[in-house]
Amino acid sequence: MEQNENTEMKILEAANEVFKEKGYDGTSMQEIADKAGVNKSMLHYYYRSKDKLFHKVFQSIFSKFVSATAGIFSQDLDILEKIRLFIDTHIDFLMRNPDMPAFIIHEIRRNPELIADVFKSQGQENLVSSFFNSLQEAVKEGKINPVDPVQLLMNIISMNLFPFAAKNIVTSVFQVTDDQFTILMNQRKSEIFNMVKIMLENK
What we know:
Blueprint: H1 2-22, H2 29-36, H3 40-46, H4 50-69, H5 79-96, H6 100-110, H7 112-121, H8 124-140, H9 149-165, H10 167-173, H11 178-201
Helix pairs in contact: 1-2, 1-4, 4-5, 4-7, 5-9, 5-11, 6-7, 6-9, 9-11
């Protein structure tokens, strides 16, 4: 049983690397088998098709994000503190997985239905509804300005994601090293939060 779990883990780790590097269309099951150090028949024993394996990899990617951010908006915290914590947690997650945004954006264009299915299966809808409910409650209590929750969440996620999705451009245009990029992203947490805070508090 343990050997089976180890083999499956090796396959998933290999698939994750190859899919991120080459995308769905550029990846073959043979490449994944070679990367995992298993024969192709063993790979097909665990995953009968590239579609099933790709779906599993995508689920794994989203589950990491869900586990990192789950529960933030259900905590007994001020709405601005919840938003600050979400921004910090999201950017920390992206710094640990810097190649993920570009990969996801590419696959969204290729197969948007898959992304929507994984989104639902991983409980992302609960995160969104929790965020919306927190905002609506804060507005009713007069703590923040009325705001379109969809626009706000899209703005936050977009501001968090862009530097990672376009990292090669960012580092080239601004001539920063990887270490300097990390410093910039840590500073970006406060920059984004302050912009959101001004918008929500400005009467």
